[in-house]
C-alpha cells in the first residue's frame, strides 16, 4: 500500500516518530520500515511546510509502499460484545446460562491458544465442600487443570474443589504480612492458594479442609511446590482447632459465607497479639460493623479483646453484596 511518509536517518527516527505522534498523524495501521540506514515512517496526511521545518533538515517527505499491521482479533470483534469469563490453568469458565454461551465458548477456544477446555457453570458454589457443577461447552472433556500464580502451581479439579484466580491480588496482600518466624493457621485451605505461598515465607503452616478431594490436591500441591513446612489435616476446623491452643500468629478464615461459625475456634488458636484475617459476604449498608461485632463477642466470651487493624472490600460479589476482609489483632 502506497502512502505518504517521512524518510529520515535511523539515528534521528525516534524523535521524528514522537513528533508525528504529537501531531496525531502517525499511521498506526501500517508498519514502519527501514532500508539502507533510512527509516520510513507512514503518516495519514502530508506535512505542511511549517510542520516539516520542525524536523531535521535531512528528513524528506515522500510516498512509499508499506505493509499493513495484521489486526489481532478480539472477542468483541467476533461476538459483537465482551463476555464475562475467567481462566484457570488451561480452562476457561463462563456461566452456562449466558446468552450465546456456545458461541462464546467457541470464540474463547479460538482466540486463547492456551485454553483447551471451556466450561459452563451450571450451579453456584454449593454444598458442604463448596463445589460447582459444570458442563463442557468446547474443547477437551475434563475439569482438571494446573494453574500457575506468583511462582506457585496448583493442581485442581474444578468440579471437586473450589478455586478462583480472582483472589490472587488479595492472597499476595496477606503473604506480604507474614514474617519468617510466624506460625499460620489456614482454616479452609482448599487446594492451597493461601497456604503454599505463605509457607514459603514463614516457620510453619497448619492447613485444613473438610473436603477430602481438596485435601488430596493440597497434598499433591505441597509436593508439587517442594514445600516442607505445611501440616495438612482433613476435617472440621472447629474440631481440629482444639489441638492448637494459642499457637497461631496469623489465622486465615477464607470461608466468606459462614466464617462466623468458626470464630470461637479461630480465637482459641490465635496467639496473644496474633492477627485473624476474617472474610465475609456483607451488604453494602453494613459492610463491616456487624462482622466486627461478632468477632468482639466471640473474644469477650473467653476474656480476650479485639483491636481492628484494617477493614477492606475485596470485590463485588452480587448486586449490593461485597466480599470483605476484616483484620483484627487478638489481645
TrEMBL record:
The entry's keywords: Cytoplasm, Methyltransferase, S-adenosyl-L-methionine, Transferase, tRNA processing
Gene Ontology cellular component terms for the protein in this record: cytoplasm
CDD domains the record matches: AdoMet_MTases (cd02440)
Pfam families: TRM5-TYW2_MTfase (PF02475), Trm5_N (PF18093), TYW2_N_2 (PF25133)
Domain of life: Archaea
Name by which UniProt lists this protein: Methyltransferase
Record carries keyword Methyltransferase: yes
Record PROSITE patterns: SAM_MT_TRM5_TYW2
Taxonomic lineage of the native organism: Archaea, Methanobacteriati, Methanobacteriota, Stenosarchaea group, Methanomicrobia
PANTHER family linked to this entry: TRNA (GUANINE(37)-N1)-METHYLTRANSFERASE (PTHR23245:SF36), TRNA METHYLTRANSFERASE (PTHR23245)
Gene Ontology BP, a term: tRNA N1-guanine methylation
GO molecular function: tRNA methyltransferase activity
Ranges where the SAM-dependent methyltransferase TRM5/TYW2-type domain occurs: 85-331
Record InterPro entries: MeTrfase_TRM5/TYW2 (IPR030382), SAM-dependent_MTases_sf (IPR029063), TRM5-TYW2-like_MTfase (IPR056743), TRM5/TYW2-like_N (IPR056744), Trm5a/b_N (IPR040601)
Amino acid at each position: 500500500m502506497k502512502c505518504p511518509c517521512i524518510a529520515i536517518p535511523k539515528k534521528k527516527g525516534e524523535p521524528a516518530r514522537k513528533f508525528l505522534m504529537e501531531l496525531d498523524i502517525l499511521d498506526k495501521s501500517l508498519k514502519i520500515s527501514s532500508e539502507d540506514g533510512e527509516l520510513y515512517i507512514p503518516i495519514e496526511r502530508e506535512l505542511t511546510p511549517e510542520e516539516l521545518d520542525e524536523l531535521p533538515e535531512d528528513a524528506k517527505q515522500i510516498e512509499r509502499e508499506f505493509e499493513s499491521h495484521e489486526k489481532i482479533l478480539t472477542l468483541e470483534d467476533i461476538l459483537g460484545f465482551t463476555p464475562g469469563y475467567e481462566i484457570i490453568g488451561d480452562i476457561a469458565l463462563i456461566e452456562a446460562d449466558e446468552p450465546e454461551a456456545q458461541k462464546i465458548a467457541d470464540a474463547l477456544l479460538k482466540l486463547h491458544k492456551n485454553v483447551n477446555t471451556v466450561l459452563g457453570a451450571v450451579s453456584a458454589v454449593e454444598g458442604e465442600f463448596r463445589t460447582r457443577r459444570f458442563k463442557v461447552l468446547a474443547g477437551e472433556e475434563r475439569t482438571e487443570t494446573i494453574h500457575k500464580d506468583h511462582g506457585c502451581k496448583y493442581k485442581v479439579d474444578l468440579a471437586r474443589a473450589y478455586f478462583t484466580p480472582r483472589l490472587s491480588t488479595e492472597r499476595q496482600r496477606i503473604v506480604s504480612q507474614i514474617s519468617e518466624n510466624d506460625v499460620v493457621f489456614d482454616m479452609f485451605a482448599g487446594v492451597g492458594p493461601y497456604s503454599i505461598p505463605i509457607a514459603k515465607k514463614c516457620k510453619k503452616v497448619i492447613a485444613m479442609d473438610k473436603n477430602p478431594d481438596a485435601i488430596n490436591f493440597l497434598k499433591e500441591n505441597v509436593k508439587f511446590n517442594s514445600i516442607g513446612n505445611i501440616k495438612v489435616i482433613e476435617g472440621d476446623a472447629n474440631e481440629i482447632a482444639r489441638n492448637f491452643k494459642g499457637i497461631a500468629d496469623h489465622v486465615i478464615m477464607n470461608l466468606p459465607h459462614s466464617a462466623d461459625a468458626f470464630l470461637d475456634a479461630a480465637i482459641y488458636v490465635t496467639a496473644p497479639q496474633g492477627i485473624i484475617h476474617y472474610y465475609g459476604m456483607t451488604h453494602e449498608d453494613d459492610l463491616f460493623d456487624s462482622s466486627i461485632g461478632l468477632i468482639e463477642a466471640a473474644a469477650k466470651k473467653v476474656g480476650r479483646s479485639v483491636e481492628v487493624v484494617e477493614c477492606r472490600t475485596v470485590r463485588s460479589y452480587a448486586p449490593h453484596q461485597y466480599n470483605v476482609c476484616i483484620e483484627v489483632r487478638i489481645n
